[in-house]
Specification:
Helices cover 91% and strands 0% of the residues. The chain is mostly helical.
Length: 54
């Protein structure tokens, strides 16, 4: 079940990163930074959970 969450997190992360690139292209650098931080957390936390629970 953890791998399903990881797959969903990766899909959401790809969407977030594409939105980040769009924000940066339109001059909203602070918003792009915030979105990239959230997207990376969204990807890293399920991986950490899988590693922690073994």
């Amino acid at each position: 079940m953890e791998y399903v969450f990881l797959l969903l997190a990766l899909l959401a992360g790809v969407h977030g990163i594409s939105f980040c690139l769009w924000l940066k292209k339109n001059g909203n650098r602070l918003g792009a930074f915030g979105v990239i931080v959230l997207a990376l957390l969204n990807i890293v936390l399920p991986i950490y959970n899988i590693i922690r629970e073994g």
